[in-house]
Amino acid sequence: MMIMLSAMYENGGNTTHRMLDGHPDLYVYPFESQVGTALVSDFLSSYVPIRYRWPEFPLDGKPEKDYDLFWDEELLTYLRVPARSKFKDCGLQMDENERRAEFAKYLKDKPRTRRHIVEAFFHSTFAAWKNVKRTGQKHWVGYNPVQVLDVARFFADFPDGHMLHVVRHPFAGYADTKKRPFPISLERYAWTWNACQLWALTAQPMYPGHMHIMRFEDMVADPQKTLTPILEAMGMKWNDACRQPTFNGEPMKSVYPWGTIRTATTAAHNATKDELSDNEKDRLTALTKVMYQQVYGRDARSA
């Protein structure tokens, strides 16, 4: 089964990814999956980065070429120039040539479909990951920011799959976004945040039992209470390994550099919200009012 996580930038997608990492039924991708390819071209192409889109492939392509189409910047940087990777100390052991061979092997004799090519991407990663902690894993978990904008494409390929979209208060999300080397404007942030929530809320009744929406604040306050019903909807049980962020099953002292969130606690979240000025809070409240009320049932300023 394929499970994709989605979240607006700095809305807790990486943290949720790490919270699920230790679950014995899940093969959790080590970094952002970034499955987009340069062949994606539509009305959203100028709105969000290609790497965060659902991929497209040529009809007459070959597995050796398909492998190189995936953006996959975080893992490829780690494999090819580890000294330049922000994850250089994570300890992951993988030979890219083996991964490439596993990719082609998986696709041999299979019909050429986007589903099979995406499956090969995840299969080859875990087949070549030498020191991954293997338990009883059954399902792949990927994370691509704003993946919800391609929710229809995802479910067209994986009608049996699940998408979990994570929402975080826009004050905290924007405050963390401002810490990036090249942050987007407050207005651009607000409108993209709105679009993500609109897509998720629209998709939820269209894909009942498979499209899930989770508030980041709920997860950090009580991981078991929040994640248990989602896991059960996916056919799994709660596991205590999901109480804290981990990488390859090992507890993490800080979620960073897997996103700008460092500490996944309510206190840290509230402190991040308060990093904004009153003017920034007022502008975000006005711009996100409609979608915020749909997700949280109140005004952003009252939360």
What does this structure look like?
The chain has 303 residues and is of the alpha/beta class. The protein has one domain: P-loop containing nucleotide triphosphate hydrolases (Rossmann fold, 3-Layer(aba) Sandwich). It has helices spanning 13-20, 63-69, 73-80, 96-107, 114-128, 151-157, 170-177, 186-206, 216-221, 223-233, 266-273, 278-296, and strands spanning 2-7, 26-28, 139-143, 162-167, 211-215, 246-247, 250-251. It has a five-stranded parallel β-sheet, sandwiched between helices. A hairpin with a 2-residue loop joins β6 (246-247) and β7. α7 packs across α11. The mean pLDDT is 95.
Brief summary of the model shown:
This protein has helices at 13-20, 63-69, 73-80, 96-107, 114-128, 151-157, 170-177, 186-206, 216-221, 223-233, 266-273, 278-296, and strands spanning 2-7, 26-28, 139-143, 162-167, 211-215, 246-247, 250-251. By secondary structure, the protein is an alpha/beta fold. It has a single domain, classed as Rossmann fold (3-Layer(aba) Sandwich), CATH 3.40.50.
List keywords for this structure.
single chain; 303 residues; alpha/beta; Rossmann fold; 5-stranded parallel sheet; two-stranded antiparallel sheet; globular
- Widest beta sheet: strand line-up: 2-3-1-4-5
Largest sheet, in brief, is: 5 strands, parallel
Number of strands: 7
Average pLDDT figure: 95
Name the CATH superfamily classification. P-loop containing nucleotide triphosphate hydrolases
* Shape assignment: globular
Distance between the termini: 36 Å
Query: What structural category characterises the helix and strand content?
Result: alpha/beta
How large a portion of the residues is in β-strands, by DSSP E? 5-15%
Provide the number of structural domains: 1
User: N-to-C SSE series?
Assistant: EHEHHHHEHEHHEHHEEHH
